[in-house]
Specification:
The protein is of the alpha+beta class. The protein contains two helices and two strands, in the order βαβα.
Length: about 90
């Protein structure tokens, strides 16, 4: 979740953040991480935690890949202030 702001509510189901877990240990770690981040930020975390074995996942089109990183580079090249996110997706 250091890659984006997990406190931004999703625009729709297709534009949401999610942690896909395969094991009970990953589920435990993901839940613990969300709980810690919620406590530290004092804001709701909108990142969903889902079973990777049953969730249908579609990789975004190429022009959506690393969007935040590309947007930051574009803003820097154009002399604009940086993006408010946390890094590349």
């Amino acid at each position: 979740m250091a890659q984006h702001s997990p406190t931004q509510p999703p625009y729709s189901r297709q534009y949401r953040s999610a942690i896909l877990v395969y094991t009970q240990e990953q589920l435990r770690i993901a839940n613990e991480t969300v709980k810690l981040m919620t406590s530290a930020r004092k804001q709701r975390i909108y990142t969903d935690i889902e079973d990777a074995n049953t969730t249908i996942f579609y990789k975004a089109e190429e022009y959506h890949q690393k969007y935040i990183e590309k947007e930051q580079m574009s803003r820097i090249a154009n002399g604009l202030q940086g993006y408010g996110g946390f890094g590349s997706c």
